[in-house]
Amino acid sequence: MFHDFVNWIREDLGRFGEEGQSWSHQLHESLFMWNIIEGTHVLTIMFFAGTIWMIDLRMMGIAFKNMPLSKLSDRVLPITIISLVAMIVTGAIAFIGRDPLMYYHNIWFRLKMVFLVAAMINILWFHYRVQKSDVAWDVIPPMTDPLPVKKTLWLAGFIAASFALLVSFLISGDPWLLSSVRIVLAVVALGALFMLIHKRTPGLPMVVKLSGALSMLAWFLVIIFGRFIAYDWFYCEKETTEPGSLMYVLQECDSALAFREEGGETVEEEVFEEEEAAPEDGATDEAAPAEGEEA
């Protein structure tokens, strides 16, 4: 169902008449428009994520400690809202103008959308649930260091997990096993880092710091997966994306390949017919010179 809808966006949205072009094809064939839209989209992500991360760092007690969170939020909120609107508009236009079906069947685009929704839910959760009690923690109390032993343990856990994660990229082997190990190491490293920050800022509620940390992580992954869209590691046409594999299923490659095979069969028939009609009366074949020599 969604495949057909996305294909309608690519082929028919904005198309007037049988000979007209859809908005998707017009944007894709434009010399500069799509590049301008994509560049603007990246810039608005920078402004939006930058202002959001300022709030997140303050929520975790890492930066802007001398400024109340409500005051900092009031200052950056206009930039955040304008950037968010521009980011959504340019992102939608970029989706239409490139190749909507390519985006739809791309695992990185799907992951980007998942974490984008997660980040938006976190924002709503913070504003409608967590921020209601901001009077108690709007101003950070003086920092009190935890016991040296606890501090050392969490720091050692973060360093060890981070080092193991880096070393894992130098090891070759089963890609799925390595990916699973790397995910576990990344979770352990981030968890140890969060607990270290939590112990150093006891005046802030855990739920506030957790909301800030989840927001930073979600927007970081949105940006990372957005950049990965340009790489064809798991395209449905790749031999590495085997039928029945996890990537094959997650990208709905069945519908993508079926659609392209239908289009490919039509092209092959046209080429075959042209090849049959190609020889003319004046054409010669390889045997002609040999017959002339014998004569």
Description of the molecule:
It is a single chain. It is flat and about 70 Å long. The chain has a domain at 2-143 and 201-252. Mean pLDDT is 76; it is low at 264-278, 282-288 and 290-295. With 295 residues, it is mainly alpha-helical. The protein has twelve helices and no strands. Helix content is 71%, strand content 0%.
Class computed from helices, strands and strand pairing = mainly alpha
**Low-confidence sequence ranges:** 264-278, 282-288, 290-295
How much helix, percentage-wise, in residues? over 70%
Mean pLDDT: 76
Shape: flat
The sequence of SSEs as H and E is: HHHHHHHHHHHH
Strand content: under 5%
* Rg calc: 28 Å
- Major β-sheet profile: none
Number of helices: 12
Number of strands: 0
Report the span from N to C terminus. Answer: 68 Å
Layout of strands and helices, then pairs:
Layout (H helix, E strand, L loop, with lengths): L1 H10 L11 H7 L3 H27 L9 H29 L2 H5 L2 H24 L17 H21 L6 H26 L5 H23 L17 H5 L2 H25 L9 H8 L1
Helix pairs in contact: 3-4, 3-9, 6-9, 7-8
Core attributes:
295 residues; mainly alpha; disordered C terminus
Short description:
With 295 residues, the protein is an all-alpha fold. The protein has helices at 2-11, 23-29, 33-59, 69-97, 100-104, 107-130, 148-168, 175-200, 206-228, 246-250, 253-277, 287-294. The protein has a domain at 2-143 and 201-252.
